[in-house]
Known about the structure:
This protein has helices at residues 18-23, 68-76, 91-107, 122-132, 164-169, 171-174, 181-185, 207-216, 235-238, 241-250, and strands spanning 30-35, 38-43, 54-58, 80-83, 115-119, 139-143, 190-193, 221-224. By secondary structure, it is an alpha/beta fold. It has one domain (9-250): Rossmann fold (3-Layer(aba) Sandwich). Strands 1-2-4-3-5-6-7-8 form an eight-stranded mixed β-sheet, sandwiched between helices. α3 (91-107) crosses α4. The protein is globular, with a radius of gyration of 17 Å.
Amino acid sequence: xxxxxxxxxxxxxxxxxxxxxxxxxxxxxxxxxxxxxxxxxxxxxxxxxxxxxxxxxxxxxxxxxxxxxxxxxxxxxxxxxxxxxxxxxxxxxxxxxxxxxxxxxxxxxxxxxxxxxxxxxxxxxxxxxxxxxxxxxxxxxxxxxxxxxxxxxxxxxxxxxxxxxxxxxxxxxxxxxxxxxxxxxxxxxxxxxxxxxxxxxxxxxxxxxxxxxxxxxxxxxxxxxxxxxxxxxxxxxxxxxxxxxxxxxxxxxx
Length: 254
């Protein structure tokens, strides 16, 4: 783990509070802007290549001060950071994310294989999109990610457009952890850091189960389990060198 660098005031809310953004000094070479359905912090100068590398973070509102250090590492490596995708997953969330993907890849010249980074409930949204679009994913990483609809008590069945009892009956139709075959065939690498004392998003029902099922399908996943850690803003989750190295290795410029 590394100590957090001193960051400009821009990173305090990272695109979420526009007045702050307008006044913040920009010491680093990057630009920021709101996009349809999301945000973009674009690395400058852009590295050579036909396509620009990017990390796709969710939920979009969870870019905050604790993520400053890792975001700076990505930008310094020439990897842009975009945020789109809320909680719960579901067909509407996947549709919204597809529109955002098209904005980034077709109109802004970003890689057609982004690295998806899901934090907590954002894991359910990013994994849902990834399992529906395995050929469009460079890699997936999670910070205590929700990987299963049945692995988190906070799932809102309304996001799936059906009653809760029907969602239970049709779980495998919507549940990303039951739809990993395409990602395994595409050899998409996975990574997660998840505490062993997490009672909000239990390790064994989410990242642990994801690792087990992905391995059974022949996929590769790196799982870090910090001992004694729960569902928190502990700096080790966000100043994780292994996570940063995974992103640098797998963020595609193609």
